[in-house]
Specification:
The complex is a heterodimer of chains A (287) and B (516).
Chain A lengths: L5 E6 L3 H17 L2 E9 L12 H21 L7 E8 L2 H11 L4 E5 L13 H6 L7 E4 L11 E5 L6 H11 L6 E9 L8 H18 L6 E8 L2 H7 L6 E5 L14 H9 L4 E3 L7
Parallel strand pairs in A: 1-2, 1-4, 2-3, 4-5, 6-7, 6-9, 7-8, 9-10
Antiparallel strand pairs in A: 5-10
Chain B lengths: L6 E2 L8 E3 L15 H12 L1 H16 L3 H25 L6 H9 L1 H38 L3 H4 L4 H20 L6 H27 L22 H15 L3 H4 L11 H28 L17 H10 L3 H19 L1 H12 L18 H21 L3 H27 L8 H28 L10 E2 L2 E2 H23 L18
Antiparallel strand pairs in B: 1-2, 3-4
Chain lengths: 287, 516
């Protein structure tokens, strides 16, 4: 991590963009990070039409409008958080955000996840979806209607037994460094789902996780573990208690290339029912 | 951090809005297009398969066998105006539309009308494109299923208008979402069009050679002499249509930023494009003349029934079972063109909304898709209403829209040409190059266009003009053109009264090339 940490916030002048700012603010307060609020504009290509499509003038007007949008974005950031705004031109929004994250050496990309018009809390929009399959840094997803709490009181880490869990732990160690925030490690167990895994296995795994975490953590808050059971991943998630001022962490699928995110099936299903923000952490470096 | 972002002054308020270092090279992806790519874009702009099917009939009706000659002559005013266009584009790269250029040169009133001319021309071509697409959709369905009755569905006014609405709505939606045709798709579409049109011509000439043509006409070199056209009116009508067939060619000349070698690529691409297009048009024109003749028989070019959409009628007799390929070529060409053509008027209306020349709503940009939201939807609605009205009023909607279109293009190209002359007046005599490109070429082009425009306006009063549709003894094309101009003037006066800012020079000022 760089010092101070900085996060790229994916902004557009919609509810979704505002939710990203809210989550950015919440995370910035937690870790004393700075926000780079980025608005990505599409780079126009040649439009083969009988009428010249006047891209230069249009782009200039678009830029003027974008500055107005960014001004209102900045107005949403409370005074206790440091934020700058940036205008980018790129082939696609996700590409622009990834470039910005690389340029600022950002620690995280914050994005409003929802797609407009659907009832699900997390019906992932195309930008978030693209990031969730390509980002080299963790991606934080804000749920529909999210508002930043004064202080995040707990971080829950949904952890599996697959090889990638250690990089997830490292990410937890990093974000909770020297903080008094509560930490909760949970494993999700699908019961009656064919390949049944006993809860004693899960408990043993959680002990291993705790041991690994305690080895390097500097967090001062309360650490708990929990095994969530349900007929499905969704039911297991809904069976847990969630605080309004809480965020969740989850790792990448084993399909992810090293140091890249690839949203796994379990994480994807979690997303659909989770009422709080979710941070997806890239797969670790190959050992 | 990698590098501190450089703060830049924000024009809209006190907050510091910065741009990210190297990422902010905004707009067009610079330097990505080579000669071949630029030529493909040029041909794609012209959309030859669509253009030919829409213009062969009306041109043959106007000038008969002199069609190849008229095609050659018709390029001249286009070339002259395009040269001026390029100079304006280089001098005012921040602008980009006839509206802004003409306003900078002539002030708000003529600038407004120049913008209006462009919007009207595009709205008319949108409806014609959609109309052609509808015809070919049902023809294609008939060819696929082998059920000839399906092709006749396009004759049903209600079905026709509804299908047209679907096409326009789809194209509108794609533009609204800010989606663009990828380069690969463009290459395929252009290659396919060229291939099928050459195939069509060779098939027609083969039939002529085998004496199986519909009404074989022996080739005559005099077809290339445009001055053998029977009257000046016919000549003017022919040239006006020829401007339509080259419409879009000028876009290649203004593709500076995107090309790998901005000094040379646009010029070379424009030359190559027009070379390919010339060869293709002459080949198709000669082949169609030799196959169909200019009589008014079933497949003759003089047959008013088929004039608005020639390929739909004669592709079958010429190509046999392979006519389906021509249907595909025209359908893909007109559908792609329909979608991309939405971008131009939408952006012009957006600019006019921004400068308060249009109601402010036209200046709305979609926050999600960053496209001119309101203007795009309005362009779609107006194009469809225009088509629906024309479909009911005219006996041959496609012919009449194309003739109206020729007039509108003459008008807004003419305004742009004179805008160029006037804008550069202070440096017109500062050197040979400036004199030729900034003064003489646009002036001559503008004068030619004015003459053509005036002649076609007067001629179109004749109730027999175009499809022969008329209202109260006056030709429909004339009434249409006048309604379009008059509504423009009325809208301009209303806007002047409600929001005078633009007209009093508060939003966009007049100037000459040396004052910048």
């Amino acid at each position: 991590m760089t010092d101070p940490a900085n996060y790229v916030v994916a902004y557009e002048a919609t509810d979704r963009g505002n939710e990203a700012i809210e989550l950015g603010v919440a995370l910035a307060r937690l870790t004393a990070a700075e926000l780079h609020i980025c608005l990505v504009l599409p780079r126009s290509g040649a439009v083969p039409a009988k009428v010249p499509a006047g891209a230069t003038e249009f782009d200039r007007l678009l830029e003027l409008e974008a500055h107005i949008w960014l001004t209102s974005a900045l107005a949403r950031v409370p005074s206790d958080v440091v934020a700058t705004t940036h205008l980018l031109w790129a082939e696609s929004t996700s590409e622009g955000l990834l470039e910005a994250a690389a340029q600022f050496r950002s620690d995280r990309i914050v994005v409003g996840a929802r797609r407009e018009g659907l009832l699900n809390r997390f019906a992932i929009g195309s930008v978030a979806n693209a990031l969730l399959h390509a980002s080299p840094v963790p991606v934080a997803l804000a749920p529909r209607g999210y508002r930043a709490p004064k202080k995040i009181s707990r971080i829950t880490c949904a952890i599996g037994t697959r090889a990638g869990w250690r990089s997830l732990i490292e990410s937890m160690v990093a974000i909770s460094a020297n903080l008094g925030v509560d930490l909760r490690f949970v494993t999700l167990v699908e019961v009656d789902a064919g390949g049944h895994r006993s809860t004693t296995d899960s408990a043993a795994h959680l002990d291993q996780v705790l041991e690994h975490f305690a080895g390097s953590s500097t967090a001062t808050g309360k650490v708990t573990t929990e095994i969530a059971e349900g007929k499905s991943v969704e039911a297991a998630v809904e069976g847990l208690d969630w605080r309004d001022d809480e965020i969740a962490f989850v790792g990448s699928s084993r399909l992810a290339r090293p140091s890249m995110i690839f949203l796994g099936i379990t994480a994807n299903r979690m997303l659909h029912v989770l009422p709080i923000p979710l941070v997806v952490v890239p797969a670790g470096e190959p050992n | 951090m990698a590098q501190p972002p450089s703060p830049a002054a924000d024009s809209s308020g006190g907050t510091a809005v910065t741009t990210v270092g190297g990422l902010s090279t905004k707009g067009l992806s610079a330097g990505s297009i080579g000669l071949l790519g630029a030529t493909v874009i040029g041909i794609s702009c012209i959309a030859p398969a669509y253009t030919l099917t829409a213009s062969l009939g009306p041109t043959a009706a106007a000038v008969g066998t002199q069609m190849p000659g008229i095609f050659l002559v018709g390029f001249l005013p286009m070339l002259l105006v395009a040269l001026g266009y390029r100079e304006l584009n280089n001098a005012m790269p921040d602008a980009g539309t006839s509206f802004t250029w003409a306003t900078r040169a002539f002030g708000p009133w003529l600038g407004w009308m120049g913008g209006w001319g462009l919007i009207v021309a595009t709205v008319v071509v949108l409806s014609n494109l959609a109309g052609v697409a509808v015809d070919f959709l049902y023809l294609l369905l008939a060819q696929i299923t082998g059920d000839a009755d399906l092709a006749a569905l396009t004759e049903n006014v209600l079905i026709n208008i509804t299908t047209c609405l679907v096409f326009i709505a789809l194209a509108c939606y794609v533009s609204y979402r800010g989606m663009e045709t990828t380069k690969q798709v463009q290459y395929v579409l252009v290659g396919f069009q060229l291939l099928v049109l050459v195939w069509f011509s060779v098939a027609a000439l083969t039939q002529v050679a085998n004496s199986t043509a519909f009404d074989a006409l022996a080739f005559d070199a005099s077809w290339f002499n445009p001055f053998l056209v029977s009257s000046f009116s016919a000549f003017a009508a022919g040239v006006s249509l020829s401007i339509f067939i080259f419409w879009g060619w000028d876009v290649t000349l203004t593709m500076n930023e995107e090309t790998k070698d901005p000094e040379r690529t646009p010029g070379r691409a424009a030359t190559l494009t027009v070379g390919v297009i010339f060869a293709l048009y002459i080949l198709v024109a000669v082949a169609v003349l030799m196959f169909s003749g200019i009589g008014s028989g079933e497949f003759g070019l003089g047959n008013e029934e088929i004039q608005g959409n020639v390929f739909a009628a004669i592709a079958g007799p010429v190509m046999g079972p392979f006519a389906i390929l021509l249907s595909l070529a025209v359908l893909s060409s007109s559908a792609a063109s329909l979608q991309s053509t939405f971008v131009g008027p939408a952006r012009t209306m957006l600019a006019m909304g921004h400068y308060k020349a249009f109601p402010a709503r036209f200046g709305t940009i979609s926050v999600r898709h960053k496209s001119p939201a309101f203007a795009t939807v309005m362009a779609g609605i107006v194009a469809w209403v225009f088509y629906a009205v024309m479909r009911v009023l005219s006996t041959d909607v496609l012919t009449d829209t194309i003739l109206t279109l020729g007039m509108m293009i003459c008008f807004y190209y003419g305004v742009t040409a004179f805008a160029c002359v006037w804008f550069f007046r202070a440096e017109a005599f500062t050197g040979t190059r400036a004199f030729l490109l900034k003064f003489l070429a646009p002036l001559v082009g503008g004068v030619i266009l004015t003459v053509i425009f005036a002649t076609t306006v007067v001629d179109s009063m004749d109730p027999e003009y175009g499809s022969g549709s008329s209202i109260g003894g006056v030709g429909l094309v004339f009434i249409l053109a006048m309604v379009l101009f008059a509504s423009g003037i009325i809208l301009m006066l209303v806007q002047r009264r409600l929001h005078p800012g633009f007209f009093t020079g508060k939003t966009l000022t007049k100037g000459t090339s040396l004052e910048q």
